[in-house]
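Quick start: read one record
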Amino acid sequence: MLCYLGIGARRYGENPIPIYRRYYWEFQAVLKGSIGMRIPDCEPQFRSRLLWLSAPEHEHGWTGKPDEEAEVAVFHFLSIPELVKQRFTKVQCQEFPLSAAQCQRIRELAQKVDITWRSPRPDMTLRHEHLLLELSLLVCAENPAEISAQDRLQRERVDRALSWFNQHMQFNPSQEEVASAAGVSPAHLRRLFHAVMQTSPKQAFDQLRLQRAIHLMTDHWQKLEVVGEACGYQSASAFSRAFKNKFGCSPDQWRGGRLKRDQ
């Protein structure tokens, strides 16, 4: 849930934000000019084109250079994705440099959300979720210098497993076969997926199956039996059950609804 939105020009040098403890997850981006985070017993460092993400209970304020205007975008969220939270096991605030293109993208997102912030509309929740998703993807972008050799090896093995499964999906490979292709034991494969993706291999592979199914089903002439077989399901009924469990409707119902929308 978005709890606060602030965008536009600020003169933090003349009107600094006092140091206090936040109760939400705070994204603060400086898109133009420079500002500095104030924390107890530390001199602020003025930074340009930067995104700060601070955890709840982090105590800080904001300041700027005298007579200098800065453009900022500030968002407070009640919660953030678990994958982002995992970056805060040892620190309460992190910094992320922004490119000119990223600054422009944050500016565009903020302006769109501001419309529904000022005048609530039915799509406001979707806009807030979209904003949080893009911010989360931005801060989760991997910086190779920050990834340990062990983490890199884990991710490479998970990537190898996902890629091999995707190439052999139609044969319905077992987890033992995938693990062997990735060069690890089945038990270690499960540990790797939980460490890197916070999910099990089965859940990740099921997601790949259904992604391919949706893609193939956009061809109205493709028989559902062929779609299920291409995704590694042993029968049309197994495919239909898996699809309905995930999306709440059968493949036939999904395709029928799409056809109506396209007409």
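DSSP finds ten helices and nine strands in the chain.
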